[in-house]
Design goal:
Layout: H1 11-33, H2 41-70, H3 77-80, H4 84-112, E1 115-116, E2 120-121, H5 131-163, H6 167-171, H7 174-186
Antiparallel strand pairs: 1-2
Helix pairs in contact: 1-2, 1-5, 2-4, 4-5
Length: 187
């Protein structure tokens, strides 16, 4: 049963949120910079790291979706007011883009048949002519996701610093939430 009365998200929801963020942002950065290096050890190592982190994101996202459906606390509509529907839509779009990026990333990894750190080679599956369009679609979806995530972060900061409504504080890990509360009490 979902408890809608909590003033904060539950610890699992908070951890999953930040774990997702700490995977998605470095994944995007790796995807942007890996080809800046000449093809070789550094380039292939960065792509290997990108692919492995992408595969790590899959169970995190699946667990996050399952947790969202069957567990965890949800915020009451009244807390968000007029922002409830746009916030809900943005969250659904973030989830949809995350799924799309992962699906395209997995397809890309297998179409390419990546060698992971020269230790394990993914089987090359599918039509090699799909390599360029799938790579392009994966990159576009990742860029759209990061753009939406940036707007999400900006909205959280606007809520925190302008509206001062506690929306950001509800998603902070406990140790940060407590230090923020202490800081507000002093100043």
């Amino acid at each position: 049963m979902v408890d809608e009365s909590h003033a904060n998200y539950d610890a699992t929801t908070i951890r999953l949120h930040w774990l997702t963020a700490f995977l998605v942002v470095p994944l995007w950065i790796l995807g942007q910079v890996a080809d800046l290096f000449p093809h070789g050890l550094v380039n292939s190592g960065l792509w290997s790291l990108h692919v492995i982190m992408g595969f790590v994101l899959i169970p995190v996202l699946l667990f996050r979706i399952a947790w969202r459906l069957i567990g965890g606390s949800r915020m009451d509509k009244s807390i968000y007011g007029t922002f409830y529907i746009p916030a809900k839509a943005a969250h659904y779009l973030i989830y949809a883009l995350l799924c799309l990026v992962i699906i395209l990333g997995v397809a890309n990894a297998f179409i390419r048949g990546y060698s992971l750190f020269g230790i394990v080679r993914l089987p090359q599956v599918g039509d090699p002519t799909l390599r360029r369009p799938v790579t392009g679609a994966h990159g576009l979806a990742a860029n759209l996701l990061l753009g939406l995530v940036a707007l999400h972060a900006i909205a959280a900061l606007v809520h925190h610093y302008i509206f001062r409504d506690g929306v950001l504080r509800r998603m902070l890990p406990g140790w940060l939430r407590h230090s923020d509360t202490a800081r507000q009490a002093r100043g």
